[in-house]
Amino acid sequence: MVAPKFSILTSDSRKRLEALVQFSDLGSGFNIAMKDLDIRGAGNMLGGEQSGFISEIGFEMYQKILNEAIEELRENEFKELFDERTTDSMLQFVKDCNMETDLEVRIPDDYVNNVAERLSLYQEMDNLQDEAALEKFATSLIDRFGPLPRQVKELVLSFKMRWLAEELGIERLVIKSGKMVGYFLANPQSPFFETEAFQTLLQNALKLGDKCRLAEQNGRLRIVFTRISHIRDAYEQLQLLRNE
User: Which helix (H) or strand (E) holds 176?
Assistant: First the structure.
C-alpha cells in the first residue's frame, strides 16, 4: 500500500488562500489582485532588482513613497515644464502634518469597548483622504455605536485640522497647555514661501493682532496661538489664516 503524499503549503500560498477566503464576495477581484501584489511584490518596476520590494513595505506605503518621489521631481528637476501658477495651485507642499496634543482626542473605551475594534477604527480613519469620507465615517460610527461623545467629535475635527494645516504649509502642530504652535516647512528655500497662499496667510496673521504671533526659532518659522481650550478653538484659528 502506497502512503498518500501530503504537500506542505508555502507561506505565500497560505497567504493567497487566506485572501481568497477573506475576499469571497462578488466583485472582490480587485482586492484579491491587490493582496496578491502585496504578497509577491510588483517586480522590476523602478529599475534594479525590485522584486519583492512591495512585499516588504506594503502596497499603500509603496504608493505613498512613489507619489512623494513624483512630487519632488515635479517641484525640482521638471519644474520648468509646468506653468508657475498651475504648479502652485496643484502642489501640496506638506504631505502629512504631525500633531501632538494633551487634549482628549480619542475613541473612549466606554464608547467602543473592544480594543481590537478601536484599533481597527483608528486605522480606518488614518486611511481617509477627504472631508466627505470623514463625514461618512462619523455617520457610520453613530449608526453602530450611538451619538458621538465629545472626545470622538474632537478626534474627527482633528483630522480636518491636520488637512487644513497641510494646506497652510504647516508640518507639525503642538497643542498643549492652552497653546498651539504651528511649525512651517523646515526648508526655508521651499517655493511654498513664494506662493500667493503664503502671502495671504501672512496678511491674515497680521489682522489677528495679539491673537497670534509669528516667530523664528532655530531658523524655522512658526506661528503661536494662545487661549486654546479645545480642538475646535484651534481649528477655528487656523481657518482665519486661510480666509481671504
Answer: strand 170-176
Number of structural domains found in the chain: 2
Cα 107 from Cα 182, distance rounded (Å): 25
Instruction: Write phi, then psi, for 205 (nearest 5 degrees).
Output: -65, -40
- DSSP 8-class letter at 169: T
108 and 226 share a domain?
A: yes
Backbone angles phi, psi at 8, to 5 degrees: -95, 125
Structural domain containing residue 19: 11-41+50-68
Residues 67-102 pLDDT 10s: 667 666 666 666 666 554 444 444 578 888 999 999
Helix axes of 231-242 and 150-167: crossing angle, nearest 10 degrees? 20
Q: Report the distance separating Cα 129 and Cα 62, nearest Å.
A: 17
Task: State how far the alpha carbon of 154 is from the alpha carbons of 63, 112, 171, in Å.
Answer: 29, 16, 20
pLDDT digit string, tens, across residues 23-37: 555 455 555 555 555
